[in-house]
Amino acid sequence: MTFIDSRTGYANMLSNSADEYNDLIMESNDIIIYGETESPDCPPNGGFCHKYNKGGYIAAPATYGGKPLHITKASALPPHKIKSDASWGSKVVLNRLEFRDWNATTREGMRSQIFTVNKNSPDYVPMHEFYDTKFINVEADAMSYIFDPPQGWANPYECGEFPCTAP
User: Fold this and answer.
1) Residue 157: what are its φ and ψ, rounded to 5°?
2) Is residue 112 predicted with pLDDT exceeding 70?
3) Res 130: pLDDT
């Protein structure tokens, strides 16, 4: 697969309803993910202008229960809002990924990072194993962005006052 100038980014995602500790492996091979291209988000002739933070790869969640993997009925948007607990037996294997032409900011001054986290994921991100990954024409500050977890995520039953989250 090839992704070009993506707003959100590519992600693996797996849902498990049998046992939250089952071994679940998500694997991706031979993917190229490009940063911003010559196609403008805000064309000089006006018309439209869309300023977005951009990402290349979203850390993959594996979930236990929650919404079905394939949407079966009308659902609250966005579809990547998971509404489920993490599946603890999961692992992500990524072979031969290439990230090309990434700057830390877009031409419109928005954040642009290769690795991001889905703010709607469960509070556990599985191990990600990268093999033969290439970074071509990538600024150092474009590598990753992990947001500060909101205080509202603190679950006193599980974590006390600390926001127990994957980030």
Assistant:
1) -75, -30
2) yes
3) 95
